[in-house]
Amino acid sequence: MYVCSCFGITEEQVREHAAEGACTPRQIASASKAGTDCGSCVRRIQGLLGRGQCPRRESLERGEPALTAAPAPDAGAEPPEPSGLPGLKPEPVETPAASAARVAA
Ligand code: FES
């Protein structure tokens, strides 16, 4: 069943995000955008999250770290293409002076 009709987010998706560590409607919004448009679904999301159903909160209450470090980026990996399209390089732009000189020649 849909919780957030603005973004088509279901109860199941909210529960999946909660199982992955989202404990607040804001964290659900970060993961899915649910609640970031009209906001009418935020109370329902809060209800789905409930209290004591958050694995991360339970970890904190047990004194365990709630977050794990993200894996380090691969040192040998190539940087992303600046143009956003692999293999494409930007064309040089002809200045007005260069254009005038080309036409005059
Ligand atoms: S129903 Fe979720 S933001 Fe509108």
TrEMBL record:
Annotated region Disordered: the residues are 53-105
The residue ranges of the BFD-like [2Fe-2S]-binding domain are 2-50
**Low complexity bias spans:** 65-78
Superkingdom as given in the UniProt entry: Bacteria
- What residue spans carry the Basic and acidic residues bias annotation? 55-64
Q: Kindly name one Pfam family recorded for this protein.
A: Fer2_BFD
- The reply on keyword Ribosomal protein is no
Q: Which keywords describe this protein according to UniProt? A: 2Fe-2S, Electron transport, Iron, Iron-sulfur, Metal-binding, Transport
Family statement drawn from the similarity comment of this UniProt entry: Belongs to the Bfd family.
The name of this protein is: Bacterioferritin-associated ferredoxin
Organism from which the protein derives: Streptomyces axinellae
Its ancestry begins with: Bacteria, Bacillati, Actinomycetota, Actinomycetes, Kitasatosporales
